[in-house]
Amino acid sequence: MPFNYSKKDKLKSKKVIEQLFSEGKAITAYPLRLIYLNTEHEDGSILKTGVSVSKRLHKTAVSRNKIKRLLREAYRLNKPLYFNNSSTSYAFMILYLSKDGTTFEGLNGKMKLLFEKFLNKTSKNEKNST
After folding, report:
1. CA nearest to 31, candidates 77, 99, 82
2. What CATH code is carried by the domain that includes residue 47?
3. Which of 54, 91, 108, 115 allows an S-S link to 82, with CB 3.0 to 4.6 Å?
4. By residue range, what is the domain housing residue 90?
5. Is the pLDDT of residue 130 over 60?
6. What distance lies between CA 20 and its chain's CA centroid?
7. Sheet with strand 25-29: strands edge to edge
8. How far is residue 74 from each of residues 25, 44, 46, 114, measured CA to CA in Å?
9. 80 in a domain, yes or no?
10. Does 35 map to a domain?
């Protein structure tokens, strides 16, 4: 899995996003929350991901956009490390929960922690279902 975040990797379907928030499961590594749902994608991609920052917590578009850029970059760099041999397809939504600003180093560390929690939780669920 290459270090890119192309158009086909972005979560854009309103139907899938609604399904994600209604049926999805969540994992939190403050200030990040990962909502995920095991789903099949029409284009055959393994992961589709969206990022979100609350308008209520970050009033200016400049601060929201900066945090979203940092989230996408941290996701892009960590995706091949954690999901390289994944065969199950998921839809992800990564939410930023803190009122404070952030740095890339802090976000990158939390993103790694979040993905480790996700892999631990999903691997346990796969072992229990077999």
Report:
1. 99
2. 3.30.230.10
3. 115
4. 7-121
5. no
6. 12
7. 25-29, 32-38, 90-96, 47-53
8. 21, 23, 18, 11
9. yes
10. yes
CA–CA separation, 109 and 41 (whole Å):
29
- Tell me the Ramachandran region of residue 109: left when phi exceeds 0, alpha when psi lies from -120 to 50, beta otherwise: alpha
- How many structural domains are present in the chain? 1
Residue 2 lies in a domain: no
| 112: in domain | yes
Contact 36, 90 (CB under 8 A): yes
What is the SS3 string spanning the chain? CCCCCCHHHECCCHHHHHHHHHHCEEEEECCEEEEEEECCCCCCCCEEEEEEECCCCCCCHHHHHHHHHHHHHHHHHHHHHHHCCCCCCEEEEEEECCCCCCCHHHHHHHHHHHHHHHHHHHHHHHHHHC
pLDDT single digits (tens) 61-100: 999 999 999 999 999 999 999 988 888 899 999 999 999 9
Cis bond before residue 31 (omega within 30° of 0): yes
